[in-house]
Specification:
- The structure is a homodimer of 306-residue chains.
- Chain A has 306 residues and is of the alpha+beta class.
- Chain A is 17% helix and 24% strand.
- In chain A, the strands form three sheets. Chain A has an eight-stranded antiparallel β-barrel. Chain A has a four-stranded antiparallel beta sheet with strand order 6-7-8-9, with no helix packed on it. Chain A has a three-stranded antiparallel beta sheet with strand order 1-14-15, with no helix packed on it.
- The A-B interface holds A 95, 97-98, 144-148, 174-176, 184, 186, 198-204, 206-208, 219-220, 223-227, 278, 281, 284-288, 290, 292, 294, 296-297, 299 and B 95, 97-98, 144-148, 174-176, 184, 186, 198-204, 206-208, 219-220, 223-227, 278, 281, 284-288, 290, 292, 294, 296-297, 299.
Chain lengths: 306, 306
């Protein structure tokens, strides 16, 4: 790398005085794949066992990590619902193309009140958890403008947008992000019906609904399901429902059965390098660098535990 | 509407003098659904029969409109390939989650040179058609920043990004947009292998590959297919290929068999109103307006011909 940098001229020093990024950011010479390959063990973490739900759908694992920092009451309720068997036997009831895949109690979708699954010790009502204070949030910021918010970046492996002027931060509706469906009342979600984004990030949903986490593995199971007929994508016949055959907290799965997965940390130099590298065309194929990156275009790498 | 506007105060006049948008843009009071319902017949157009390919896949119609203004040589080649039966019997050979669904000659994917479909009178080599001049382009601009480009908007129903300083405009890789797969050489595409974006817009592909058009109907057929194993999503077994049972130019389909569809024009006040309305929370559900819109979040409405 050293040999790529030339001694700055007087003009270049002036430019750098005004634009320190010029000096701080030489163009990366290494691909994203190599950054991942060269990463240190400390660049990775295990999924949080008390905040990870492992669902089995169509014989495949769909793994959701919760975001208790952003939606603590919803995370706690989803934990309870998982442990008390609520989601086991629930089903995907809606797949709307380029929008959401949604799962719920089929009886709720069919408005069969007498067949509703019992909530057990989970709460029926929760406050809306649309945003948290920005101040003090350990965010790894993106340098490029987001468009939808003044600040964007990652916190705890989740895509986050923020408005420091209003001291607000919130989870962004990127691909694979999971929210808690609600009715007309802002505080009418309780985690019994959840949706994952399966297309272009519908960021206009941000701050309008409680986001609870993100599918970190198995999103392709949810995104490749048949779209439901009709404009909102609900399956019109109960036999179209795709059952969640089992849902367990990662902490409750015997060690030998746990999915063999770890996830990259998003509070490291390695992650920053990965994001910066994504702004540049590197390798033989691309001819033009976008010089731009967006939180919804960056997925957090996972890998088998080495 | 008149009664919503109050006589401006002296201060308001000063604000309006500096910010004419305040005066020009009262907050919309009508939903997108109502704008579509109240649209005039002239707000709609038929698909261009000489630039529309109708594919049949899994018994469903997948309709692609070509963009001859942006990629005239690729559009002409695709027209020839369609008319000479190249795509009929081709197949979807790759579905990579949150990226692309790609179709091609299966023999090409299998590297079986002796079984390759004949090109007929189509050209094997075409120039790269990555961008066109911006000057004079009849673009309906978006007012919000795009992030990936200085200017964005719609032309001929297609999402477009542009850099006026470089006098360049190009089709943006939004959901449903179709590009011509290429090898390492920028001019190695000829339309025999095409891909449609099936997830978050991978805008870093912009200006790196020739974009040829957009799926205007039936994208859910391509987006809900099983993902291929492996990191690039290619189907590893030929029996996984999903055949294109027939592909015809709209102009060559008997009138009685033509899909009953028209599409909204994107060079009208109605379209501008639809985009502006998308920036605002209207109706009972949403509690917060994003005050932002992005070309890749706006789909162009279609409807049955009235």
């Amino acid at each position: 790398m050293r040999t790529k940098l030339h001694a700055p001229t007087a003009v270049a020093w002036m430019v750098m005085a005004f634009c320190p990024m010029v000096w701080a950011k030489p163009v990366p010479q290494i691909s994203q794949a190599d950054i991942i390959k060269n990463s240190a063990p400390g660049d990775w973490r295990r999924l949080d066992p008390e905040n990870t739900v492992v669902m089995e759908i169509n014989g495949q694992a769909v793994i959701m990590e919760l975001a208790p920092r952003f939606a603590p009451k919803h995370a706690a309720n989803i934990r309870t619902l998982t442990r008390e068997g609520y989601y086991t036997g629930s089903a995907v009831v809606r797949v709307q193309d380029n929008y959401v895949t949604q799962w719920a109690d089929p009886a709720d979708d069919e408005k069969e009140k007498e067949k509703l699954k019992p909530l057990g010790t989970a709460l029926a009502e929760l406050p809306a958890e649309f945003s948290i204070p920005f101040k003090g949030l350990p965010i790894t910021k993106f340098t490029d403008p987001d468009g939808w918010a003044p600040v964007s970046g990652f916190v705890d492996g989740m895509p986050v947008a923020a408005d420091p002027g209003k001291n607000k931060a919130w989870l962004a509706h990127c691909y694979g992000v999971v929210g808690a469906a609600r009715g007309t009342k802002p505080d009418s979600s309780n985690g019994t019906s959840l949706y994952a984004i399966n297309g272009q990030a519908p960021r206009a949903l941000d701050l309008n609904i409680t986001v609870v986490g993100r599918i970190v593995k198995g999103m392709e199971v949810l995104s490749s399901m048949p779209r439901g007929p009709g404009p909102m994508g609900f399956y019109d016949k109960p036999d179209a429902y795709i059952p969640i055959t089992r849902a367990r907290m990662l902490a409750d799965i015997p060690a030998t059965e746990q999915p063999n997965i770890e996830i990259m940390r998003t509070d490291t130099v390695t992650w920053r390098n990965l994001v910066e590298t994504s702004r540049h065309a590197i390798g033989g194929w691309a001819v033009r660098s976008a010089l731009h990156s967006n939180i919804c275009n960056r997925s957090v790498p996972t890998r088998p535990i080495p």
